[in-house]
Write a structure and sequence with these properties.
The complex is a heterodimer of chains A (370) and B (234). Chain A is of the alpha+beta class. Helix content of chain A is 56%, strand content 19%. Chain A has 2 domains: 178 residues, no CATH class; 159 residues, no CATH class. Chain B is built from 7 helices and 10 strands. The relative contact order of chain B is 0.20. Classes of the chains: A alpha+beta (370), B alpha/beta (234). The interface between A and B is medium-sized, with 24 and 25 residues.
């Protein structure tokens, strides 16, 4: 109890300094939580596009980005004919621009694609899709920002398309995207006879290994991955995740410097007190535990406040209409756990030097000269 | 110069120094020059001498707060130059009282006194009972929850005395314990110090400038030029 009182006393003695440290950790945690959650959400959404009514995707081996992947049409036809495959749908990804909107995700899909078949069509008839080369179906959000209605015409790139439907989807990328018939998209992007990926649904999930093996055997230039495998291994996702954690980590590092600064000042200004504790039998371990305890409390409260700020910020993001569907702000427990552990670790690491310094205090000198 | 101990007093030797040398500033200032001393259990000993003669240094050496350049220092027969022994020494063998009380101002009187028990891992209830006992002996029972800032000089020094005795040390090292107090308070605290030392069976080694107080101890050691000269006390 006295030990905790000592820790608390040391923190409350310089309240402003302690609060600044708590704020440092708090904003670092909030930044990390926000950045990581938003990017994880974005990754989840992109994965969701690929795993829409499918469990395996086939794409060109060793491409850094799916936009650069080319899967030949004959492969699509052959794979679709394999007995273990329930359906195989080619999808061509592309980025198009329209007036005032330089980046709009474009999906070149067939009428059989789940995005067309299973989406909630707000306007238009799904059976009309791909009847004409200039047909386009818009996500609800895309229709909003392109100011398009059913049967209107929209300018996409250098071409004009006829809006035959507007559909609603929970996925932000799809909701803000445009859907072209596969053939039109291939022409638009000068990728005739190819698609970016094939999304595969098997009759029996247990055939996944056999399917992947067969793809490897038949098409050396292609690779088949189950959705979770893809999410884990796709380099763009890796880069995004690494960036998110790096940005968040830098924030925490700054917070850690704040804690270190506080703890160094805290130790330097009570050398005499540390000497008194030493004279009264405090061991190095007890002194270090006291210093680490102080920083752990700062980190704990910082993490708590940071989580609150981050959660509020993410909640606020959800309310921004322009971001609707683009950011998945669902807090993942594992992210929460990692952020808390990192915050505590950073705080405690920040106390390392001050603790070592405290352990080296020679009581006799401190008491003689202070 | 080697100083004789007092072998005729009976009791075990609890403090012993043999040919202890100590200097500061890389040898520029030598404060102890081959000091040898034996202190027997239960003795009250005053160390007198001018400022800088080495009184505090000798106390620090016996308390394990400093190490000699040469020679040996032992407490209860155990050499204290080893770290493992040092902790035990500070927790159970010796208690310190300084001229400045060296209490932690943000803690209460009781919390200050309990610090040594926390360091030694003594049971909370045992520690509280000991605190109540010492507080009663020193007349501080009604002040236990007071912050140090609210205590008078005499009360602070009595608190320091309580803290020093919390873990029932066998030896009390007091460095000018009444040096910062007025004459009346000084006499009161000194009486208390002697009384506690006697009733607790503690060996008292006290550095002091106050000759009248020093002469009330069983042994009076005069320090000059880094050496000890023993005088018979009254």
């Amino acid at each position: 109890m006295i030990f905790l009182r000592l820790i608390w006393t040391n923190l409350s003695r310089h309240r402003i300094r302690s609060l600044i440290s708590v704020a440092g950790i708090a904003f670092s945690v909030a930044a990390m939580l926000t950045v990581v959650t938003i990017l994880q959400g974005a990754i989840g959404m992109f994965s969701g596009i690929l795993s829409n009514d499918s469990e395996i995707i086939v794409f060109e081996r060793n491409v850094s980005d799916l936009f650069f992947s080319n899967v030949p049409a004959n492969a699509v036809a052959e794979i679709a004919s394999w007995p273990m495959v329930l359906h195989a749908n080619p999808v061509l990804f592309g980025i198009v621009s329209s007036a005032g909107h330089p980046i709009v995700t474009c999906f070149g899909v067939t009428p059989e694609d789940a995005r067309i078949r299973k989406a909630d069509w707000l306007q238009g008839d799904r059976l009309a899709f791909a009847q004409h080369a200039d047909d386009v179906v818009l996500g609800e959000r895309a229709a909003e920002f392109l100011d398009a209605t059913l049967n209107s015409h929209v300018q996409i790139g250098h071409s004009t398309f006829h809006v035959i439907g507007i559909l609603k989807t929970a996925n932000g990328f799809e909701d803000g995207g445009v859907f072209l018939p596969l053939g039109s998209a291939q022409t638009f992007f000068h990728k005739e006879g190819t698609s970016s990926v094939i999304t595969i649904k098997l009759r029996n999930k247990e055939d996944a290994a056999a399917f992947k093996s067969l793809v490897k055997q038949r098409y050396g230039s292609l690779i088949a991955l189950e959705d979770q495998e893809f999410t884990r291994s796709y380099s763009q996702f890796k880069i995004l995740k690494a960036t998110a954690w790096a940005v968040g980590g830098c924030g925490l590092l700054l917070g850690g410097f704040g804690v270190a600064n506080t703890m160094i000042m805290s130790v330097f200004t009570r050398i005499r007190e540390i000497a008194i504790l030493r004279v009264n039998g405090f061991s190095n371990v007890q002194l270090a535990a006291m210093i680490f305890g102080e920083s752990a409390i700062v980190s704990f409260f910082g993490a708590l406040v940071g989580l609150s700020i981050g959660t509020c910020f993410l909640f606020a993001l959800k309310l921004v209409p322009a971001l609707h569907g683009y950011v998945d702000t669902t807090l993942q427990p594992v992210v929460l756990l990692i952020v808390i552990v990192l915050a505590l670790f950073t705080g405690v690491a920040g106390a390392f030097y001050p603790a070592v310094y405290a352990m080296r205090v020679r009581a006799v000198e401190a008491l003689r000269f202070e | 110069m080697i100083n004789p101990a007092r072998p005729d007093n009976g009791g075990n030797i609890v403090l012993r120094s043999e040919g202890v040398w100590k200097s500061y500033d890389d040898g520029a200032i030598t404060v102890l020059r081959g000091v040898s001393l034996e202190v027997r259990q239960g003795q009250t000993i005053a160390l007198c001498g001018p400022s800088g003669c080495g009184k505090s240094t000798l106390l620090h050496l016996f308390g394990g707060l400093d190490t000699p350049d040469r020679g040996r220092v032992a407490v209860n027969g155990i050499e204290i130059n080893r770290h493992r022994n040092l902790l035990r020494l500070l927790r159970h063998e010796v208690g310190f009282v300084f001229q400045l009380h060296n209490l932690i101002p943000d803690l209460t009187l009781a919390e200050n006194c309990l610090i040594p028990t926390v360091a030694a891992g003594i049971d909370r209830h045992v520690a509280q009972a000991r605190l109540r006992q010492l507080a009663e002996r020193t007349g501080l029972s009604h002040r236990l929850d007071q912050k140090i800032q609210k205590l008078s000089g005499g009360e602070r020094q009595r608190t320091a005395l309580c803290r020093a005795l919390m873990n029932r040390p066998k030896i009390l090292l007091a460095d000018e314990p009444t040096g910062s107090l007025d004459e009346h308070t000084s006499a009161t605290v000194f009486e208390l110090l002697l009384d506690l030392a006697k009733t607790e069976g503690v060996t008292l080694l006290m550095a002091t400038h106050d000759r009248s107080l020093a002469e009330r101890c069983v042994r009076l050691l005069e320090m000059r030029d880094g050496r000890i000269h023993e005088r018979l006390s009254a």
